[in-house]
Amino acid sequence: MKSKYSQYYDQSLIPSYYAFVKNMTIEELAKRSEDKKQLTTLNIVIVVLCTTIILENLLVLIAVCRNKKFHTAMFFFIGNLAFSDLLAGSAYIANIFLSGPRTFDLMPVQWFIREGTAFIALAASVFSLLAIATERYIAITKVKVYGSTKTCRMFLLIGACWVTSILLGGLPIIGWNCINNLPECSTVLPLYSKKYILFVVTIFSLILLSIVILYVRIYLIVRSSHQEATNSPAYALLKTVTIVLGVFIMCWLPAFTILLLDSSCRIQFCPILSKADIFFGFATLNSALNPLIYTLRSKDMRKEFLRVLCCWGVLQSGRPADRCLVPLKSSSSLEHCSHKHEHQTTPIMQDCTNVQDSWVGTLAESAPGGCTAGKSAKSFQCPEVYVTRLKTCR
């Protein structure tokens, strides 16, 4: 018998394992695969959904990077969750285009990479949710565990999240698989060991249970505190991340159930496992919903999204980049300027040639503290904020 690792480059291995778990001959499997050579309607829907996932989460990452108000532990963890969702969308698209008859052109090592990437993205999402819950608990209970090295520890935690995820998703390619042990093979993922799948689902379930316990404790602390706490930004953010957790559980529970059934059911005895693609397709929806939750729940995030989309639209139209004027009244944009000067905010796009020359003198006298006049008194620049054109656009 060949060693396990020597078979990682054997292209004939995958067809034989798939044929075994599906109770077919290799010829029958090849014929069935040829019938599915074209993308199905479900696959097309998932590809469109994954493209949306990539664009949405890219927008979240840009927003978190651009706006200094979001440079906090909480939003960095949300950015980490967005990056894992972006990776998940990319992995799902690759999985779609490398599945069907193209699966049998893969070597086992390529198959492990294809499936492992999706598992890594899933693990990173779960660990990001745990990091968010931990951060919220620390914030609500006012426990000072970061100290002067807060940023360093935060990034170490994010790094640990990815190292653990890569290790967890890479266990099969390291050796925890069912090569040379066909009866132990998964029906849904034929080269994966049933014990590995059970292990992963158990780990994820325990982590999610821990997150739920943390949020219950946070809720009890908030409810027992002063009434004003329920109207605080921290409480609003708590509700947002609780919704994110609830949506994750709702979307992934069917897929976890299928994987649990796969790990305990004898090969060829559970017909529902042949419909696993539907359950994983539903789970994909989670990565698309998270950015929508941030947008609907956070006014600052909506404004930052608007800034990014506006600037992108201006650049695509070929107009000067400095014409991208977006009103931002949040503390992240106007924290260095007095609120009494909010009337300076201009529409998203304004033809600067229509502004009267008299504005220059008026605003020069009433410029808010910390703001300085631009070149030729055509603009005012608030520290780290935006530029309001007053006379002409270049």
Short précis:
With 394 residues, the chain is mostly helical. 62% of the residues lie in helices and 2% in strands. The chain starts with 12 loop residues before the first helix and ends in a 5-residue tail after the last strand.
Helical element count? 12
Sheet with the most strands?
3 strands, antiparallel
Name the CATH superfamily classification of the largest domain. Answer: Rhodopsin 7-helix transmembrane proteins
CATH topology of the largest domain: Rhopdopsin 7-helix transmembrane proteins
Count of DSSP strands = 3
- The overall number of domains is 2
CATH class of the largest domain: Mainly Alpha
Order of helical and strand elements: HHHHHHHHHHHHEEE
Shape: globular
Give Rg in angstroms.
Answer: 26 Å
Percent in helix: 55-70%
Q: Show unreliable segments.
A: 325-394
- The strand line-up of the biggest sheet is 1-2-3
Strand content: under 5%
